[in-house]
Amino acid sequence: MTVPEIMAELESKGEANIKKLLLKHGVKEPFFGVKIEHLKPIQKKIKKDYQLAKDLYATGNADAMYLAGLISDDEKMTKADLQTWVQEAVSQNISEYTVPWVAAEGKYGYEMALEWINAPEEHIAAAGWCTLSGHVALKPDNELDLNAFKELMQRVCRDIHASQNRVKQTMNSFIISVGAYVIPLTDEAIAIADKIGAVTVDMNGTACKTPDAVEYIKKIEARGALGKKKKTVKC
Could you tell me the pTM of the whole model? Predict the structure, then answer.
């Protein structure tokens, strides 16, 4: 499929009510309002295509950018590619899902995430914390720098309440991810989450809520799912 063919199909699948909903959830124009279920058949048909993914992303259309993440050949993504993508990820679903997924499943995710979390731009910093969450969900514990993640959790504990809105949300998710996926750090993640306490995030009038990290980790523990790594973070 070509970019024009895909864009025409996406436009045909756009729904006004979905677009209205996504606008409330931080997705920015231009986009058509396509349900993810309509992106999946296109993903299945294409599978992976490095150049097509980059070309779709470059359209700036949030639906096409999301699809680009689904078909990206993550191992081929360069540091320059990832930096371009994160800079252009102004929609919340792209900065907190698409870019982190592609980065975490590629070769440079951890390295780039450590740079991104220091960015002054809210969407880039948020992407960095989401990438770190994906990294711990995918990598075996013996491939993680546990001391580095201890330091990152301490940084969250120190900075979360003074951070930008979406950065607070993604920092909280990072603590949950470490607690859920890295068993050697579960107890420390719970202790830090308890010290942090409630995290207040402006959800722009939606029904979304910031999860209580302690409660969330303990629910995962009760299901016997602690430490169960993912094969992919994309969905």
Answer: 0.97
